[in-house]
Amino acid sequence: MRAIRLAAHRLDAMSVKKGFTKDSVDLSMVEEIKPVQPARTGLGAHDDGEEAEEREIIGRVSITYIGPVAPYWEFELGEGPEKVLASFIDRAKARLTMLPPYDRQFDRNSGRISQDAAREGIEIDWILAE
Q: pTM for this structure?
């Protein structure tokens, strides 16, 4: 209810600036503003007590750290539909290119890759040993 009042207040303030009167603005059209949930990141993104939706595994991809010199990562297709896995690998490469595993951004990007894989039904094998 507080969010609706704030939105109505902002609408009233905008109306006055534009020369409208309070009676000429229909506040019944203002929808309730719902709070936004913060994004979950990291490899353990589903640790908030909710059950992650289980999807059928349709394929497997292996992501291997190949050493301290760029390009750092090697991607291998496993079992599964090649077109789906190839598009997933393209997205994963975009997130990991020029990014070693000791970089702070790696935690966020690996979490996003894991979420993307779970959404697509792809199992990831992370091989981080040199």
A: 0.57
